[in-house]
Amino acid sequence: MAEEKKLASIPPRYDLDAKWDACLDLTIRRFFYSSLAGAFSGLLLFRSPTTRWASVAFGAGVGIGRAYTECSYIFDGSPPKLSPKVSTVPSGYAQEEKK
Question: What is the percent of the chain with per-residue pLDDT over 70, rounded to a whole number?
Answer without folding.
Answer: 64
